[in-house]
Structure formats: structure tokens, C-alpha cells
Write a structure and sequence with these properties.
Elements lengths: L1 H11 L62 E12 L9 E5 L18 E4 L8 E12 L6 E10 L2 E10 L4 E4 L1 E3 L5 E3 H6 L8 E27 L3 E28 L2 E30 L2 E27 L5 E5 L10 E23 L2 E15 L33 E15 L1
Antiparallel strand pairs: 1-4, 1-17, 2-3, 2-7, 4-5, 5-10, 6-10, 8-9, 10-11, 11-12, 12-13, 13-14, 13-15, 15-16, 16-17
Amino acid sequence: MRMIRAAFLAMAGLWPATTVFAQSAHSPEPGNPPALTTLPQDKNRLIVPPPIATGPLPDQPRMNLPGEAPLTDDFWTSIDYLWWWTKPSDTSIPLISTGPRTGLTTVLGNGVIGQPGTSIAFPQKDITYGTFSGMRLNGGFWFDDAKTAGLETTFLLTENRTYGYNFDANEASSFFPTIPYTQPTGTATSLLNDQLNSGPGALIPFSTNIVFMSQHQMFGQDINYVANIGRTPSQTLDLIAGFRWLQVNESSMLAMTSSSDVDGSTAVVNGVDAIACNNNFFGGQFGGRIREKFGRWNLETNVKIGLGSTRQSVHISGYRSVNGPGDTSFTQPGFVFTQPSNIGLNVVNRFAVLPEVGAKVSYDLFDWCSVSLGYNFLYLSSVARANNQFDNETQPNTGYSPTTYTGTRPAFLKESTDYWMQGVSAGLELRY
């Protein structure tokens, strides 16, 4: 009876823990791991292998190296020194001619273009103003923490450059200067030639000074909305859209002082022709820029395209003043290329395109500061320039008494041309 009870308890798992069972005949020898087939298996356990990734790994953010500035910040500002030059100014007609002083007579030919002994003294080529110094200020900021929308403005200024030419002659000079032009009849003549062929006689000047002076300057500003459409730790791409204003100013002056002996008295004639052109471009603008980082070095390229209108304001003025002979003195409007027929303010509006391209290489001195070298090319399709507004057809007063001008020439020519300015820059950029 006890044996039956013990067997029943053992089968039910209730036998005391001290019960020892015999080892299986298939148990491994001591020191050897058991065979996999001899280990107990859980038939209810489902073993699933881990998934294997077949696509590209997700991008991992690249940490900036020590001393390496990030590509973007909340605010940025820069200042650049500009060393630029502009398209030469075309002067389509001769303004100063010379003829031999010996043999001055009342016969046609004194400083007249095409006559023997006459040559063009100025201009012999287009007027070049040389290089312009200037500055460019830039600043902007992001509206949001993600740095996807921002505002930026740029101000551009070049110096006012002056070009000058002077021709001075007296009784000891072998050549004598004058101003050539064409009469309304189509006949070529000159100021000296008409003076020698008008009363009160052949008044040969004993001194003449003719001066040409021209000035040129450019400046402007734009303001743009900036939208970032792509950014990695080493590259960024921004699109811009906004408004642009650019002003191009050019003025020219032709002046003469001539002294003659009239019956023992000195008659002095002063005359000035002046033309000033003011060009204002107003228009919308769009474009983009790409910036790439190579350690501490950065490369930035940008393109801007403006579409709008250029308001061309051309102001023409002039006068002739005579002192002598005797008590005769007067001043009247108009000299040679300016007369009441074209004196005044003339305004023309023309459609214009203003593209600009640039590239800049910069080096990070600190996380918040970098220095740069760059190049820019700017083009404006329509401007009025002063030096090609001179109308060669005219009939000036060369006598010693005032006259009333009744002609229709010279006229406002409405001349327009394209314009470009380009050059290099060196600057400093701050980010914070």
C-alpha cells in the first residue's frame, strides 16, 4: 500500500524534493555541452528572425568640427569694399576740333571737320571713367526657428567719378581749338569759322580755353523675401523674391572762354552746354543662391533678375555770356549744342531688365566671423547717358549782340543704350 501511494505522489509531482532520479543513459559526459536535440523544446514558442534593412540608412546629422561655423544663423550682416568699373560712355559726335592758327581767314575751313589741317581733338574714343571704389552693405534674419523664411536687404554705392579734358591755346600756339557742328542746312562748320565770317569783322581770338567734364555714379538697394528650399550640413539652397531700385547718374559739360580784340577793346565770350541724365530703375526681382561648405571654406553663388521700368530724366541747360566790346554785355540761353529748342527737363520711361550674377569665396575666422573675396556682374538694358545726348545740328549765335532763336534743332534726341558694371570685392561677414 505504501509503495502504491509513493508511486502516485511521484507521478503527481508531490514527492519530496530530496527524491533522486536516475540519469538518462544518453546524458553527455561531464564538461561537454548537451546536444541541441537533447534540450527541451518549447513547442508553443515561435522564433521570428529580426528584420533585415534593405534600403538606405537614414541621414545622420553631421556635427560641425571644432571652430567650424554652421551654414545658417538667426541673423547675418556683411560689408564689402568694391573695386568696379563700368561700360565706357559713347560720344557719337566730335566736340572739340583743331586747326592751324597761321592763316586764319574768313574762308570756310577754320576747324571744320573734313577741311585740310583740321583734326578731331576730342573725343578720339569712348570716355572711360576708370575704376570705381564703393561699398555694399547686406543684412538679413530668419522669421522662424526652422530657418525656412527670412528677410534680406542689400545697399550698393559707388563713388562719383570725374573725367576731364582741357585744351588751352593762345597767340603762341600753332593749333587753335574750336567746337565743330553742322548747320540746319547740312553744311559742316565750326564756332570759330562762323565767328570769323560774322560781323563786326574777322575777330581772331588771341586766347581760347575749352573744357569738357563728365561725372558718373551708380547706387541702389533691394529688399527680398528669402525662402530656404533645401539644407544639409554642408549645402543650402535659397530662393529670393522682392523689389529692386537702381540709380545711374551721368552728367557732361562743355565750356569755352574766348578772348578777342575788337577795335582795341577785349571782348570775352563765355559759353556752357550742360546735360545731366538721371536713370531710376524700379522693378520686381527674383532669383536664388547656393552656399556650400568645405571645412572652414565657403563658396556662394547667386543670381538675381529684375524686371521693371527705367525712368530716364534728361536735363539740358546752357547759356552764352558776352562782355564787350565796349559797353556791350548780355547773356542769353543756349551755347552751341543747347538752345531754347531743347533746353529743359525731358522724361522718358522705358521697359528694362536688370540681371546680376555673383560668386564669393569666404573663410571662417571664427564660428561667427568670416572674410571673403567676390566678383559681380550687373547689367541694365536701358539707360540714358549724357555723352550721347549732344545734337550735332545747330545754329548758335557767334556775334556780339543778343539774338532770338527760332530753330527746331538742336533737339532732345531720346538716346538710350545698355549699361553694365562689374568688379571684385573684399568683405567681412558676421553671423549670430
